Amino acid sequence: MNQIFSKNVNKLPKIFLLAFIFFFVIVILIIWNLFSPWHTDVGYKPKQPIPYSHELHVSKLGIDCRYCHINVENSTIAGIPSTKICMNCHMNIKNDSINLVNLNYSWENDLPIEWIRIHKLPDYVYFDHSAHVLSGVGCVECHGRIDKMITVKLEKPLSMYWCFECHRDPYKNLRPLDKITDMNWKSDENWLMIAKNVYKNINPPVESCSGCHR
Amino acid sequence: MNIVVTKNDKKENKKIEANLFANNLDFVFNKLNFSLNRRQFLKLIGASFILLSGITTSCRRPEIKIMPYTKNQKDMIPGLANYYSTSMPVTDNSIGLTVKSCEGRPIKIEGNKMHPFSLGYSNIYTQSSILELYDPDRSRNVKRKDINNQFIKSSWNDWDFYFNELFNKYSNSNGKGLSFLIGNNLNSLSILKLFNIINKKFFNSNFYFYDPLYNSVFKKSLNIFFETNVSYLNIFSNANLIVTINSDPLMDYSTGIINSVGYSKKKKIYSSTDCLNANRLYSIEANLSVTGMNADHRLIISENDSESFLRLLIYKLLSDNKLKWPDEFSISLSKEKFLDSLNIMENVFKDNESVIKFINILNKDLVQNLSRTLIISNNCNNINVNILTFLLNYILLGYKNTFEIYENNFNDYFKGNFDSIKELCNNIKENKIETLIVIASNPSYNFPKELEFNRISKNIKEIININMYENETSLISNWHLPLSHFLESWLDLVSLDGTISLSQPLIQSLTNSRSILDFFLQFSNIKQQSLQFIKKNFYDLNLVNNENEWKKIIHDGIFLKTKSKVKDKIFFNFNKIYESLNKFSIYKTSFDSLELVLKFSYSLLDGRYSNLSWLQELPDPITKLTWDNAVLISPELANKYGINSDVQKGGYKAEIIKLISKNVSIETPAFIVPGINKYSIISFLGYGRTNSGYIGTNIGIDFYPFLNENGDFIVNGIKISKTNKFVYLACSQNQLAVNDRDLSNNVILHLGDRPIVRSKSISEYIDNFDVFKEYNLSDELLEKKSDGYKKMPLQMTDPWKYNNNKWGMVIDLSLCIGCNACSIACQAENNIPIVGKIQVRKGRIMSWIRIDRYFLGNVNNPKIINQPMLCMHCENAPCEPVCPVAATVHDSEGLNTMVYNRCIGTRYCANNCPYKIRRFNYLDFTNSGDLYVDRINKDREKILKMQKNPDVTIRYRGVMEKCSYCTQRIQEAKSRARREGLDYNNLPNDYLIPACAQACSTNAIIFGNMNAKNSNVLLLKMLDRNYDLLEELNIRPRTSYLVKLQNINLGFN
Fold it and tell me: How far is B654 from B648, CA to CA, in rounded Å?
């Protein structure tokens, strides 16, 4: 009697099984990738009310981060500069530029500029700028090359996994306290040798939930 | 910086998509003219699913805006809190406060360390006044009655216009027919000045004062005894022997904080010398008060009999010749004549052996502690009791140490509460009053009902009600004007000892209101800002001379004393004293003729705090009752009448009894409390408000009808009858207890050999320093090596070593007076929601720190121990291994942390916690979710959320929570230490303090770093009084307790 199915058909269940596993893994990987902050958040680059260019102000004009973000060393919040800080210069410089319409409007009417928030940690995380800055974490570590951005975008995912990359082994991301705002500074072998001594008391919360969550 | 979330809700989008699709489906099909078979339908559904998921996943997170200031605010750094000094007016006193303000929102109130009536500590009233500020039910509009007698919205312009007319009208008649009724905020230099101006302008007008909390009888007695107008201060810290007579100085509204601070000074027993210096507290009372709970000895007698008791006490004291009759007395009154006036033959106690024994022992003790004794009758409404107290204090040489008298210029205006309102009501009856301006008072509710204010108020042409809330009086008034909270207004206040303190606004008025000073400025027609007026007044009085001094007052919140202490020159008017003492009326109480004692509720006082949910849900210190009041009766009285109130599952099942007096009869639930006089019924005023906002309306029973026009807070000749009706009350303790109790048995709690609450007497301790060893675990159960401070139960693994900070807490049971300040402080700090009466009955109260009250010993005169219970942060925490998602884990500094985001709500941890301190959000108590929306609460929350501490997560439904040792304060302190260049891994001892310990006026809660140098927590943990709760479970709690030491007089044995 003839066989209804050829011998090759015996392979089918195995192929199906393998295909299914393969498919399953792919789906997990896709979800993992697409739903992670790396995919959903990184690159967020909204249009701001004033086309403020960090590249111009930081790279070309050489203004320090702390000229505008005044509270970064003594508060949990670095602080978005008040209109007054912008007007310190723009009272005289390029005051009639079309880009500064919203700025002038804010100044004249005493209304806040409505910046759109880019760097936002998940709810239920309490982040302290001063603690990080005073421990030798540079601005660039979390905010990326702000000095190269014409419009600010989110470069790092700001996820807990990403936080832990540094918290578990902080030394490679630390820098001397006078280089905190330096965007171009690169750590080298020599620094890595002495970093452990400079920051020997550093004790970032790794296992302790209470370090960041309250 | 304000961060505003613009709603771009995914769920909302999804819904709109689905609706659009469903509506358009038929239309589309009809137009395309094709029929739909199963396969096509599935295709379509699949396609739309992909489309929908594509749309929803591509939805970005909600757009959040950051709005910086246009100009930087001075001293304001976003993310860091600011602290400002202000002060709170309380009856005739003021309490200095330090208010934490986050980005312009005051969020937490602490005491001002420099203020003599706060000393940095706080009580439930100062703590919860922050909630009063944000109360959504505060009146927001000027309202007036229109022609149809309907309340309509009006405006300040209308009022100003109307007032000008009124002002002109009364200017012509010099204020004839104009009257003011004032409820609070009196001791102020500015208001005093304005009083004088108004009085001069309208010399025919009248001022009346009524504040039920103000004891005008005590004031009257002071005037009789000292002749001059003085204020009287008890100095607890110097007293070795304290006797309270029907008074509750530890919970007093105006001086409670410093009283308990002083009281605790000599209760801190950490060494054998402390034992010898310990003070002793006797309470003579009918009620079981908070002070009585802490008394070393209580004598339970009717309030009516307290005068008899005091007469007999003084008679015995003087007739034994152990005590000298002062020479300055002999000039005007001989000792014999005085003893005669005590009229001892009529005394009810002259044959009562147990009372005479008590008096003899007490007298011996009093003579031994001469000049270090303090007799207190501040809350007594009996002139003779007060006079005898002053006399006793004087002849026991208390003026040397234990009380101080200050000159008083202010209370001249306070003609005496009840005399004042009697006069007012007489004038109303005689149609003498055309316009009555009611300021911060509520005559419709808290006037004695005998005066029938509501009925006779129709004789008044118009009532202008100025109050923070629309209350009962608003209903009968023609104008209602919103009044500012003290945190919104400028005011200068004078304390009892003459310290001037300043109230400064922390926030602009939230309710379009005006401050009390603004109103007085308007009445006196002074067109000046209240700040300018105060400042000018200070300059005029030469209190400040330059701007720097003024700035310093604003910064410190207080100013130096202005009143002088009256020292040796005390003149006595013995004629009046003699005359008063000769009037001796005795009322004998019995089961047929009971006395009803009216007390102010511990939470709501006279009803002024009835709309504050924190205080409504705060368990009463004695009964642990929430959201209700009931009359307290003794077990003996309950047996006599067969009243069957008892704890049951799902609440306290209270029998409703009927109280019948001559004029009034009221049905009320009865609560059986051990240690109450058998002939007394204790009731609490402040409940039963009929118009008090969303929270406080129609809660409990109003006992004001029993208050008579003379202001006797005691009603004699009460009869009770059973109604056989029952009602369930919500208690925070006992109703979930497992083992049964038997009230007929003498022992109430069977605690076994190793009790949860432990107490010893000091004499036992001095006799035998090993007295606490009886509680120890047997030696074979203990580890050989010690963990730094104490032997621990046996354990297989080595304990974890903490190299950095290591937090710990000690609670001294001798010091905890059960005042609940820690509970409210925690509620304010940690954003703890309230749950409501029904949920409390289900045992779902959310307070992170609760105070358990235990009765021990004789049911008629029990010993009471208060035990604060909060998360113990156990080293071998039983909650941690049972959590399936590791939502509760240890951190590197020994805290048992709760990770809200991980919690899935299995409640295994709460079930495995032996202390039952974990709290579960069964419902959306914080009104933060959108799954189930309670519209009213959601709207209320919009305002209430301004109070929330931004450093603490708001917990949503289905999440477990518990005490975190104020982890946000720990993190803040570490961050602060880093900025200050300190070693944040090893914080100094007193670098931070959790909210409960900060509020605690007796320092019963001590928190600190056990690895710090000279750690006081570690020192206390090394005391032999220190014990771990349920030590045999080897869970190694981080919070431990010190055994309560009572200073028992051996004469009683």
Answer: 10
